[in-house]
Design brief:
Length: about 150
């Protein structure tokens, strides 16, 4: 069976899914964002097979989402850090957290809280318009063809 080439679609959602749409990738990014950045730490935290983790890390490095940095020469060991591209993907994960906290957390509540460093308050990601700064939700948006639209 041949995999659909999402990267070739004229759709930003499809192209993003090509980079992080495999289920382990967002969880690897979450862990690296939280400071779990060495192979054995990631493997232990996620409970993922070493083979799958190695594949995910290689892919995310190839996509310039993570950078692989040596922290030991003997034996050779590496850690993974988010690139600028990877940090911006964490903004997307914050939106997923907001949805998950609202719709899947259950009575126990959110498993993690986020404190906004600027104001010091516990908060959640809220999409705002880059032009006017007001809240922006799917019901407030018209979708129009852009310059990269398929013709």
């Amino acid at each position: 069976m041949q995999r659909t080439q999402f990267s070739e679609m004229a759709c930003s959602i499809a192209r993003t899914l090509d980079v992080i749409g495999e289920p382990w990738s967002p969880l690897v990014l979450r862990d690296v964002y939280m400071g779990i950045n060495r192979f054995d730490q990631l493997q232990a935290d996620l409970g993922i097979s070493r083979k799958v983790l190695a594949q995910r890390l290689t892919w995310l490095v190839e996509q310039d989402v993570l950078e692989r940095r040596a922290y030991s020469d003997r034996p050779p060991r590496h850690e993974y850090v988010l690139t600028a591209k990877g940090l911006e993907l964490c903004d997307l994960l914050m939106a997923m957290v907001r949805w998950g906290d609202r719709w899947t957390a259950g009575e126990a509540g959110p498993p993690v809280l986020y404190r906004h460093r600027t104001c010091g308050e516990i908060a959640h990601a809220e999409p705002t318009c880059s032009a006017c700064g007001k809240p922006m939700h799917a019901t407030d948006v018209d979708v129009l063809p852009g310059p990269g639209a398929a013709v």
